[in-house]
Each structure stands twice: as C-alpha cells, then as structure tokens.
C-alpha cells in the first residue's frame, strides 16, 4: 500500500485530540448522602459502569473518525510496484499527439486536433516534480519535439500549444514504437505512453508489433480518444488527363471524388488551371461511392501548366483539393533502346517515326525518336523523354537499373518488348522487381497444337483502345501469335489483353508515379504478325500518348513527404537553386553521383505547388496528401485489443478526467472512496451513541 498524498498522514496526530479532551473534561463527582436514597446507590453504580463503557466506545469512534478522514485525504492505494521516497514513484511519460490530417476534422467551432491538445495537456498535468516527459507528434513520419526527456512542464505545455496539424497519414505502429524506444532508457518505476487521437481504423493496420513491444517492456499504455459518432467525409482522389489526337485540340481532364460517409451527398467540383477557373460541375456521391466529372478545356499555350481540382468545403478541408502539373511539349520525345540492327528495333522505330525524318509534321510528326544502344543508356538523361522503349535483349547492365527505376518513380513510362536472346533471369532478378513490382517473365510458350493463337479478350475501356473505331475486336482476334513469354502477375498489375490460352499478352504495372507496359511477344514477325498489322502504328502512338499523360495527372505530383529527386546534369556544381514551397523559400545544393548531378528536396510536408528555379533550370511539381487518410472511420473499441496485440492498456473516454484511472494504474486500487464511506458510517454511529449517552447521564454525587 502507498499514499498518494502522504502529507495528510500528519492528520493522524489529530486523533489524539478527543483523548485529551476526554481526560481533561472528566467530571469530578460530589458525594451527597441521603438516607432515603441509599437503596438506589448500588443501582446507580451499575448504570455508571454502562455509561462509562459507552463513553469509551464514543471516544474510540471519534478517534476512528478523525483517523479515517486523515487516511482518506492521504489517498491510500494498493500498489503493484514499489514507490519512491515520500510514497510516490517517479514517472517517465511520452505523450503521443496525433497530428495526421484527419485530426483537422471540424466539429462545431473546433477541430479534433484542438480537443486533442486539451487532452494532452490534461495528461501533462498529472506529472509532478521529479517526473520527466516527451512529446511525439504521430503520423506516418513521427516527429519528436524533444531530444531528451524534459522536466520543464511549462515548456511541455508550450510545445503542445505550438503543435501544428500536418498533412500526412496515420501510422500508430511507427509512432508507438518510437515512443517505446524513447522510454527504454528510463530508470523510473513508472513508464507511460498517452496516445491522444481520433483512433482512426487505418492507423491500427500494423500496430500489433508496437502494442506487444510496449507490453513486453512493462510500459503502461493509455488511450485518450477524441471525437464521437460518425464522421462523414468526401475527398478528391485524383484526376486523369486524356490527350487530344493532335496538339492544339481540346484537352479532357476527368476528376474523381469519393464519399466515405454513410449518407448520400451533393456538391460542386471546380477545375482551376493556371489560377483561372475553367469549369464547375455538380456531383452526387452515394454512400461509399466514387464518381467522376469530365472537364474539356482548350489550352492557351504550351509549357508547364498548374491545375487544381477542388470540392466545395466540408468538415475536413485538407482532402478537398487535388493539385497537379503537366507539361505540354511541342512534340513527344521517345527513347528507343535496343540493338539498331535488330528486327524488333527496326519495326518499332518505323512505327514510332513512319516518315523517317525524326518528328517532322505529318502523320507521325508529333513524336520524335532517339535510338540508343543499351551500352549508351548510362550517359543519357531519361527525364527528357516522355516514354522509353526497351526492345529485344535490351538491358543487361545492372548499372542502368537505378536510373530507370528513378525515371519510373518520378512519373516516366517504360515499354518492355522482348526479343530473341532476352535474359529472362536478369529481368526477373534485377530489372522487373525495380520497375514492375511482382510481375515476372516465365518461359517461352508456343501455341498449342502448333497453330497460331489469337487474342481471347481485351479491355475495350482502356485508353489504349478507346481511340480505335469499330473493327478492333475482330482485328485483335485475327492476330496470329506463334510464341510468347508467359507473364506472371499479381493484383497490382493489370492484364490489358490476353491470349486465347489465357496468358497475358499485354500487362500494365504501376510503380510510384509511373507506368510500365510488358508485352508477351516481340516486335518482329518471328513472334507474331502484330508488327505487320495496320493497327500496330496507331497502337504504338497511343501507348506513347498514354504514357506521356500517365493516364493520370501524376507526372508532376508527389505524395506528401515523398522526396523530390531530379537529374540536373548540365548545371554547374555549386550553382544556387531556389525552391519555392507553399510556405517558404529554401536554398538547395545539387550533389554529384558518379557522372550525374542530382537535386534532392525532402521538405514536401504540405500540399500545393513547388517551383524549383536556377539560372539554367526551372521545374514545377505538385504535392498531395495520401487520400487513404480520408476514410475517417474509427476503430471500434471491441477491436482495439486485437489490433494492438495486447490487453494491457487503459481507455480513458473523452468525458472522463485522466487522473483517477492513471493513478489507479500506477499504484493499484485507490481506497479513498471506501474510507470516506466508512468515516460516514462512523460519524452516524457517533451521533446516535452520543445522543443516547446524554439522555442516560448519571446523577452527580458528592462523597
């Protein structure tokens, strides 16, 4: 047992007061003899003994009453751990304050983040002299506000007040593990973590390991939720760009929004282009439904354009806007990597540039082709190209895999067309995991029975095929495929077309902001008659257009917190580069990496537009929050134990002050209430016994 307010134990000395009063105020009896009353004397002596017993009992009750009150104010508790000097163990606490953008949800005139700050301060108020504390802002990238635990609780309160809501998603696993590591070195008997959050379901995805680690380390975990009931929300999830057949024609942009609420909602979607409103359209969203709005705009010039899709405001404004940029070149630049003498390379080059004049105006004039041997790939800046074709054996050098991966992650498009002599092992071991995730090439398969196979089915809604008029279905089914590479895919990849035996013919995989197409057949007649078909040329051109636009406006868009990385070979090393963010201006310095000069920037913590400028370089890109965070559904309390992997945590509802459950968890069950009730019953007994004693007081006698 320990006493949470041991100073009140001094009140036990007051229990001596009734004893002193009893001893000092004992009445001195006078004996007066009456012959006629002598027969009563023996009866009076017997009655006096009973009264004296009651007086002693009354004295004990009064002593007990004072002692019980003193003990109650000293707050005794049954503890499970040893206390320090003075009856109180020191505490090391880490307050984990959720700063993900879902906490910006408004309820009334305050946000959940405002209420979370109040709860964080109430947890800080439990700390006393000798305790220490840390403050951690939780998100997908946790931020500690102290390098080491602080004993200055005024500074702790000030840091809680200064905490700013971020634009990142929620990841309680990272945040709780970081908090547990921060408390590992503490020697204090009490180590505590306070998680103050809206308890969003998505944040508990991988929290089991963190919860188990906290329980194993003997750290107490307190969950302080904020917000009650359903929190409906809608968000802009992205936008797709559809290039016109020729430059100068109408550009189509399709915006997509989703309703995470349980009720239908209506609103307006607005397209802003280069700061000017270019269209507004109503939208109706069913519960859990996704809808799209199509805008048609005529660009008023080439170059880089900045756009924004915006929903009218709702209680969570952070996800009501989607920012994007795109560059409108005079012509599309394509890099064709392959053996210049190879049959597949020749067919692809002729399809990309049928006039053979490297991009002059005409049927194929909007595409300019640069052919390169695979050995030259190391010295080429890939970011200048809107699409890269890897034909035939193509890549066998591990040194070019990193630039290709960087190109795809940044929004580039790659088309892999196999050929004779392709090193399937190298592709599966090195290239494809970096560019296409879990997609793999299998062995070469011949058509069953020796007869050419055709196309069994294809996605007619895919942008590659929507440009073709009637007859494409028959043309594809008449395609003669003699042999092909088997392609193994997963749920993240998409089979755009399949061969009659069910194997994929064309697969689209996404990596970062870019896309990768993988053909199962080579681009020469030894594999199929595809290169000799009339639709081969427009199909190749549509592939370039689709990869240029990305099918989605991600060429110039990064997720919040994702690093910007750009090859700026050609700039002078040491030349000053300035980045204008939505909040400030930052000076950058390129660094050399081998033969390349790279520019990196990690400060993409806010959504909006970022412009990087120097004397010989100008780039504009957009940053957006990850919309998975827009699903505000909280994790039901019945699932907290399962997601955390432990039952060693205490939930403190928002309407309850944290002091009682926290102190009870530290020291065990507090006995204050029981002692007060016992003191009440003792007081009642004293009152009843005192009244009865006054009625039966003995007649004084004089000796």
pLDDT averaged residue by residue = 83
Radius of gyration: 39 Å
Note the main sheet.
8 strands, mixed
Percent helix, as a range, is: 25-40%
Strand arrangement in the largest pleated sheet? 18-17-19-20-26-25-24-22
**Total helix count?**
15
- Terminal residue distance: 53 Å
Give the uncertain stretches in residue-range form: 80-87, 358-364, 551-555
Please state the structural category: alpha/beta
Could you characterize what this model shows?
The protein has 703 residues and is of the alpha/beta class. The strands form 9 sheets. Strands 18-17-19-20-26-25-24-22 form an 8-stranded mixed beta sheet. It has a 6-stranded mixed beta sheet with strand order 7-6-3-8-9-35, sandwiched between helices. α2 packs antiparallel against α15 (672-695) and α3 (112-124) packs antiparallel against α4 (153-162).
